[in-house]
């Protein structure tokens, strides 16, 4: 292309317009691999490059689905009817990066032993299938958590709209939905308890879907109406570094940026 006007500090400047193809896998970093994009420039035998970030649209087709998960766990070595009941209640199971997950939960300790530890976490699981390999390579990281303390025998513990803030993260990514995806990324919310004098944890799980777009909502690309609340509330779209990757590896040379949706009042 022809050079355009000279810029301060540069002898020549060239302007290019590049259109990325559809269905590109999103940028992603895990300890066993990554998806990265770089742009290179070559001129008169000289070259330079820089990495850039690619996101992927993953549609939110519905948002207002209430999820209630419950389970009753028997306690080993105790007589009949000695159990622990766990209930996990979510107003929805579809979320946006940057959104707050409000958890309503109850743990009823009907056993004769104390619960020394309770925790609710949101977990990101990345899987990659190598060629001619039956089982995938897997990486698991906690992206949000809440911790509570002791529950004595015969007592209960209530989590009343406990907030878990979703950071800037890659959306739920499926290989089956897009053959160009290299990784499958899924999310779960887990409720865990640990009994006194026991190394085994009781776990209650629920799938979460992390998306970043609803085709039914008109938008200018910067903000859209929050369908769950009212017309006075909107989400503003921004871009942030994936902080959980920074925490995992301070020496990494590329940190992906993901879209994040922050609720604002208008």
Secondary structure topology:
Layout: E1 3-4, E2 13-14, E3 28-30, E4 33-35, E5 37-43, E6 46-52, E7 67-74, E8 83-90, E9 94-95, E10 100-109, E11 115-128, E12 137-148, E13 156-165, E14 184-195, E15 201-210, E16 223-225, E17 233-241, H1 243-248, E18 257-265
Parallel strand pairs: 9-15
Antiparallel strand pairs: 1-2, 3-4, 5-6, 7-8, 8-10, 10-13, 11-12, 11-14, 14-15, 16-17, 17-18
Structural class assignment = mainly beta
- Beta percentage is over 45%
**SSE pattern, N- to C-terminal:** EEEEEEEEEEEEEEEEEHE
How would you describe the shape? elongated
CATH class of the largest domain, named: Mainly Beta
Low-confidence residue ranges: none
| CATH architecture annotation of the largest domain | Sandwich
The CATH topology of the largest domain corresponds to Immunoglobulin-like
Query: If strands are numbered along the chain, what order do they take across the biggest sheet?
Result: 9-15-14-11-12
Query: Mean pLDDT, rounded to whole units?
Result: 83
Taken together, the total number of domains comes to 2
How many runs of DSSP E, i.e. beta strands? Answer: 18
- Overall helicity: under 10%
Q: From the alpha carbons, calculate the radius of gyration and give it in angstroms.
A: 23 Å
Describe the largest sheet: 5 strands, mixed
How far apart are the first and last residues' alpha carbons, in Å?
45 Å
């Amino acid at each position: 292309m022809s050079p355009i006007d000279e810029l301060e500090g540069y002898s020549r400047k060239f302007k290019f317009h590049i259109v990325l193809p559809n269905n590109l896998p999103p940028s992603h970093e895990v300890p066993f691999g990554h998806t990265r994009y770089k742009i290179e420039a070559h001129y008169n035998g000289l070259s330079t490059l820089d990495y850039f970030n690619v996101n992927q649209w993953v549609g939110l087709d519905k948002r207002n689905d209430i999820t209630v998960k419950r389970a009753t766990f028997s306690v080993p070595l105790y007589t009949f009817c000695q159990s622990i009941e766990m209930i996990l209640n979510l107003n929805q199971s579809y979320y946006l990066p940057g959104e707050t997950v409000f958890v309503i939960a109850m743990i009823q300790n009907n056993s004769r032993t104390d619960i020394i530890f309770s925790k609710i976490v949101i977990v990101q699981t990345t899987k990659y299938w190598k060629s001619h390999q039956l089982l995938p390579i897997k990486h698991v990281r906690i992206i949000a958590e809440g911790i509570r303390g002791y529950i004595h025998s015969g007592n209960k513990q209530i989590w009343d709209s406990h907030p878990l803030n979703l950071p800037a993260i890659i959306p739920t990514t499926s290989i089956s939905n897009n053959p160009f995806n290299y990784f499958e990324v899924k999310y779960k919310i887990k409720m865990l308890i640990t009994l006194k004098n026991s190394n085994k944890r009781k776990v209650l799980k629920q799938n979460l879907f992390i998306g970043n777009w609803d085709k039914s909502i008109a938008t200018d690309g910067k903000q859209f109406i929050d369908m769950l609340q009212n017309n006075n509330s909107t989400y503003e779209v921004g871009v942030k570094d994936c902080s959980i990757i920074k925490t995992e590896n301070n020496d990494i040379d590329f940190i992906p940026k993901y879209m994040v949706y922050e609720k604002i009042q208008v």
